[in-house]
Design brief:
- The chain is globular, with a radius of gyration of 18 Å.
- A hairpin with a 3-residue loop joins strand 1 and strand 2.
- The chain has one domain.
- The protein contains ten helices and two strands.
- The protein is mainly alpha-helical.
- The protein has a two-stranded antiparallel ribbon.
């Protein structure tokens, strides 16, 4: 079994075991696993501090901006395959047409997606995944949970990760070493892109865990409802018009 898929399944199993066997009382609404989640958040943060962040800083310092942008564009273009599939599953057929057009333009004219020429033509990137599709289909988000390595999720998005994984072209790269090289590059590039954003988090959050949790829950709700969530669910106004 590919190492990444094994890691994914270990994280899912661990999360589901905790969700079914460790319910607690007197916890924040929507976060009944807060004790476990805070511990896992600290674990993920420790891994990031010790390994991922230093590598991302080195990557950001060494790799020229045009090249790092090309890498980001390449992986974003691959992600459009997942976006298109979820467009169709959600019944967004015109958006699926536009996203398919975007993918074809960037894959051909944009040299495999390295250059995002489609955005220059008004074909902007959309964000759709299987967690959102489950929400559109009526599935409740369920409890908030922090997965090992994968970070903030809810129960619905945890199951959605399975669909995201199986529609990810990187998972079909032949050879474990080559596949892990693609996964590792994507992780480091993504983390490098977040280096500036984390300064805002450090300055804004008295309780970083709560800030991340509330922001995640609000953002996911907005994505499911395309920026127009029901009023009764609009408790946090962090990602308006996302």
């Amino acid at each position: 079994m590919p190492h990444f898929q094994h890691l994914f399944k270990v994280g899912i199993v661990a999360a589901l075991l905790v969700m079914t066997g460790c319910a607690t009382t007197n916890q924040t609404a929507g976060d009944p696993l807060e004790g476990y989640n805070r511990a896992m958040y600290k674990f993920n943060d420790a891994v990031d501090t010790a390994v991922i962040k230093p590598v991302a800083k080195g990557y950001d310092a060494v790799v020229p901006d045009p090249i790092s942008q090309g890498v980001s564009n390449f992986f974003s273009n691959l992600n459009d395959i997942t976006v298109i599939i979820n467009d169709l599953l959600q019944g967004k057929f015109y958006q699926a047409y536009k996203d398919t057009h975007r993918f074809v333009v960037n894959t051909t004219v944009g040299v495999g997606g390295i250059f995002d020429v489609a955005s220059l033509s008004g074909l902007n990137k959309n964000n759709e995944d299987f967690g959102q599709t489950l929400g559109v289909w009526g599935a409740d988000p369920g409890a908030y949970v922090v997965l090992p390595f994968f970070g903030p999720r809810n129960v619905r998005d945890t199951f959605g990760l399975i669909g995201d994984m199986f529609t990810d072209p990187v998972m079909y790269v032949e050879g474990d070493d080559a596949r892990l090289a693609f996964v590792g590059t994507r992780v480091v590039d993504t983390r490098a892109n977040l280096l500036k954003a984390e300064k805002v988090l450090d300055e804004a959050a008295l309780d970083e865990y709560s800030y991340v949790r509330d922001a995640y829950m609000q953002r996911r709700q907005n994505l499911v409802y395309d920026g127009n969530p029901p009023l009764e669910d609009d408790e946090f106004d962090i990602f308006e018009d996302e």
